[in-house]
Amino acid sequence: MNCPLWEERIALYAGGDLSGGDAALVRQHLAACPECAALAAELRGHLELFRIAHAEPIAEGHFTAVRARVLEKLAGEKRPWWRHKPACLAAAAAMMIAILIVARPHSPTMPQPRAQARTAPAPPAVPGLEAPPPVKPRRPHRLLASATGPTGPAAPVEPLVVKLVTDDPDVVIYWIADK
Amino acid sequence: MQTLAAMAAPLDGSEALSGLLEAARSGDLAAFEILMRRHERLVLATALRLLGRMEDAQDASQEVFLRLYRNLAKVAGTENLPGWLYRVTVNVCHDVRRRHPEVTLSGDLPEFVSTAADPQQAAAEHERRRALEMSLRLLSEKERAALVLRDLEGLPTEEVAAILGTSQATVRSQIFKARIKMRDFVERYFRRRV
Questions:
Q1: Contact B58/A74, CB-based, under 8 Å?
Q2: Which fold would CATH assign to domain B1-101?
Q3: Which of A101, A133, B12, B80 is least surrounded by Cβ atoms within 10 Å, i.e. has the fewest?
Q4: Which class is domain B118-194?
């Protein structure tokens, strides 16, 4: 090429990257220089061919594959806790209920004495009066019973278990309460 | 409800886009899939030209969309989602190339479908395109990125400069060098074959 000083401007001109004044100068030069005109035509031809190649459609399968991979990855990722809004709210509600049940004030009763101790001696028989029925010993509260020591074979107390299943398979809420 | 709103929204307009972004941000994967469908060509085609291999381009696209999902809060505040995607695509492709620098000049060239009716003309066009694809691999990363964004994606120089984080003068210089290098390569390629 005989006009190396023009090379840069011609390369930019071929891609439409020159402003009006510069583009006009290049056009003048190209009109007078067949070699540079050939270079400009060649560059334009390459760019055009490349643009056509780039604009060709890409097979849908390639897009589908990318989408599937991304969605699979996102679905597998653990979401931050604030994204589990419904599950978190349900868990908080269940927790509050459980706390209220456990912490509710019990009746201010002293630990009940053992059944045998409370069995009062039979009142003296009064003619014409029936003896009152014996007092049925109350079953002490489970927690109090354990505090006061074993009282013989206690009846098994089944706690109430509520299982809350959320949308998220990783979050299951158990609500355990005394009956 | 956001999903339904996002699905029902027209696919054009910034309101629809912000609705999709908002829905996706709240964890709506259906809305995010619509976002991907709207921008997948931009990402995959750019990555394919920057990397030269469909397999690598798919890996890069996957990474770009995962980054988009993780940065939805940031992206929602920007007006220019395509600009953000171009920038991340270029960065991810740089990373991929650094991890796999063994890309060969002629290996894994894309298949061409010639539009020419004459078989001889079609063969010539095929060869030219092959040479052009190969020449793209000879460019430096920056030259290639500038050329792909400016000449193939058709972005204005100003936007290319913003995406690449450089000046317009630098982009012009990179584009000029890239065009001349490609032309020289194609010339040498055919001279050798003749």
A1: no
A2: Rna Polymerase Sigma Factor; Chain: A (1.10.1740)
A3: A133
A4: mainly alpha
Any chain A CB within 8 A of the CB of B37? yes
Q: Which of residues 47-86 of B touch A (CB under 8 A)?
A: 48-49, 54, 58, 61-62, 65-66, 69
Q: Alpha carbon of B172 to those of A25, B87, B158: distances in Å?
A: 18, 18, 10
Q: Tell me what percent of the residues of chain A surpass a pLDDT of 70.
A: 61
Task: Return the sign of the alpha-carbon dihedral for residues A136, A142, A147, A151.
Answer: positive
pLDDT one-digit tens code per residue, B136-154: 888 999 999 999 999 999 9
Sign of the CA dihedral with A118 first, then A122, A123, and A126 last = positive
Where in chain B are all domains bearing CATH 1.10.10.10?
118-194
**Residue of A170 and B31 predicted with greater confidence:** B31
In this prediction, residue A147 carries a pLDDT of 47
* Complex-level ipTM: 0.82
